[in-house]
Design brief:
167 residues; Rossmann fold; five-stranded parallel beta sheet; 6 helices; 5 strands
Amino acid sequence: MTIAICPGSFDPVTNGHLDIIQRAAEIFDQVIVAVGHNPGKTPLFTVEERMALLERVIGEARLTNVRVDHFHGLQVEYARAQKAQVIVKGLRALSDFEYEFQMALTNKKLAPEIETVFMMTANEYSFLSSSMVKEIVLFGGNPDGLVPPVVLTALHEKMEKRGRING
């Protein structure tokens, strides 16, 4: 059985993330969507909230071979602990490739038994990032079609609680 890890911050999960997760689920026997703790970022949603949103989105997409988890530390160590053979990374642009290529080479040095697979995001999501979605909502824009409906609702609720929606 081939186990793949799809790591990320998912703050929040976008339709671009979902595109990669769905395609990975078609290729690998099991996919673990792993929410990483990044001490260099200040997320809008807690790890628990991000996991709950991912679980809802994955459930609605009926991805039965996908589960959600979280990790601290190096993604390659997490992958090893999960007995995964593959780390799946989505790429949007050339700038993503440079960073992800460096990480893949480093991971290969640390864990030669784990492969990194790059997937190009679908054209309609090639510009999309979680940061962009948060900014659209912050300034009163409509990110309809960029995130699943449950995520859009959660974004509005979170921004309203913080008193940060303009428009």
